[in-house]
Every structure is written in structure tokens, then in C-alpha cells.
Hints:
- The structure is a single chain.
- The protein has 12 helices and 10 strands.
- It has helices at 116-120, 128-137, 159-162, 164-175, 192-200, 215-221, 228-240, 260-270, 286-297, 302-312, 317-321, 339-355, and strands at residues 64-68, 74-76, 86-88, 91-92, 121-125, 146-148, 179-183, 204-209, 245-252, 274-279.
- The protein starts with 63 loop residues before the first strand and ends in a 26-residue tail after the last helix.
Amino acid sequence: MPKSPDDHDPDQADTQVYPLRPLHAIKGRGSASQITQRFARDRREAFDDGWGDEEEEPAALRTTLEWEQAKTALSRHGSPDLPFHLGLNPYRGCEHGCIYCYARPTHSYLGYSPGLDFETRLIAKQNLTEVLRAELSRPAHVAAPIMLGSVTDCYQPVERELGLTRRVIEVLAQARHPFSIVTKGSGIERDLDLLVPLAQRHLVAVYVTLTSLQPELARRLEPRAAAPHRRLRMIRTLSEAGVPVGVSLAPQIPFLNDDLEQVLAAAHEAGARQAFYAVLRLPWEVAPLFEEWLQLHYPDRAQRVLERVRDLHGIDEEARAAGKVYDSRFGQRMKGTGAWADMLAQRFALACRRLGLNRERVELDCSQFHPSLLSAQQSLF
Length: 381
């Protein structure tokens, strides 16, 4: 499994972006360039020799898919910042193309760019369900909630055709193993026939990421994810079907998605009863990619946004001078530190208290799992 992009000190001072000149935003894509991945031996810079037409639109990029044989299905971590320690990801890369995605640097381990490659060169794990069955059947396996989609969105567009996530849920349902899902993809509604019976057994919870209610901002931040109004409909559909559903307000980006209270109110009205947030994280190549995106879409406030992000992560003047924008230390990478982080936390807590969010904790039941349920003679439920 790919390592966490936060495994090392993310000082990106020597990371460079080599885009074609002039740089254009690419319709339907979050990134505008192929940043050189940090393990590359050579770095190349595109050079404008004057022969190209500066007004020419960049060619549309096709999404390609590769298959791989997974060695493991479950990934484990020891981060104290996260409420789960088991993750499962049917895909590598994500076509949603969210520019802020902290998982982009995982593509570097494959020799691909965390820029456009991350959202156009997807890898699907062909034998995932077989490997998952084997891992759940091991005597040493102890049931704990599994997070589906910790470094990818398991309901990104390719799932409609491949159905890997659905097959994973079928295995977990057969074993009565608890899990949760974080997604921006409306494709989750296809699997209500599986999720509703699991919800009745307290075996599943779903969290829909809703970064902002502003359609234009969402289209630029998350170009191939469902629109904000569509995600609200997802929340309503799941809630009315009896599936416990919450909302994720991640990431919070200063001076961009400043409608936290409105998002919480809309999600609550749609049926969400849980909520959480995280501040913008910029590990490794994500920092220059996000800065490039800001210059393309919001040049008037780019510097102000980056300075406030540095404030949120407690970056001192010396580190700022060296180009550092992010601190990956446990305990502050998710919520930040300092006055601006405290203000954000207070706004979130106040809005949740007013709306009645997070009053009851969603507890998933681990006691129902037994590996013998995975035998061929057992039914799904």
C-alpha cells in the first residue's frame, strides 16, 4: 500500500513545477500541470520557443485505467489524529481531481506525477475482494471499523463501470464487518440495497464531504465531484433510507470556503446528524500544486490565502522564508494551531451546538463479525 504523504517533514522548498507556458486551467481537471514527482532523478522544464499559439486551448486529457494485483487489502496506521486505524482503497488516484487532496503525493511512489497523473492515471485493484476475504479470515484479524476511501474516493466516476467498491461492501456485509465511507460521489446511492440492511445492524455509517455551497468554487476545487446541491440530495437520500449520515467540511481554506455555518445548516436540514472538519493540509507536492491553482483561479487573494494557511499551521518566520507552508506533526496537522485555528474551532462548535449536530455518537457494532460467515454456504445477511 502507498505510504502516507505525511510520513516525512514536508518542506517543499526544493519542489518545482514545470508547466507549459503560458499556463492554462484545464476544463474538468484540478491540476494544470505535471509536477515532477519528488523521487524523479531528472527534472525537466517546458520551454516556449515562440512557435506555439498562446491562445490555443490545451488538448483534452483522457482518463486511463491500469489494473494491479493487490498484495494487501487493509492498510493500518497509528495516527492519533484519525478516528480509525484500518483503511481500504479500491483505487489509486482519483478522477474527482480535488486540487487540495492530501493523497496526491502517493502517486509519486508509483513513479507518476501527483499533478495531472493523479487524476488521469487511475489504478484499480483487480483481486481486491479475494485478498480482503483472505485477510478477514485470518485468526489474527480483530474487527474494528474500516474506512473505505481514506486516500481515494471509492465512488469516483470509474466505480460506475467497475463496481469494485460494491464488491468490497458485499464481502464486508457477508462477514458482518463494520465500516464507514467518506465520499463526494453520488454513485453511493446505487448501493442503498446493501447499505440499508447494514445500517439496521449498526454496521455502516456514511460521511459526505461538502466543502462549500458555492457552485463555482466547488467546480474549481473539485472539478469532477458531484455538485454541492447533488451532495445535499445524497445526504437526504441516505438519511431518509435510515443510513446514519454525517458531513465532512474538509478542508477549510481561509478566504475561500468561508460558508462553514451555511454548509452545516444545509447538511443538517438534509438529514446529517454528525459533522467534522479539517484545515487545509499541503504535504509535499500538494503545496506547489495548490499555489499554482490559486494563481490561476484566485490571483487577487493567492498570497493572502497562503499566509493564512501558514498561520493555521504555526509556521514561523524562518520557516516561511524557507518556503514551508505546512506542519505535519500529529496533534495539529488536522485542526491547526494558534488564534485562527481557535477561531475556526469555536465557529464550528457553536454552529454544531445550535443545530444539534454531534449530540449522539455513531457506534458501529464489531461484535457481529465472524470469519466463518465468509464461507460459501452463508448468505449476505
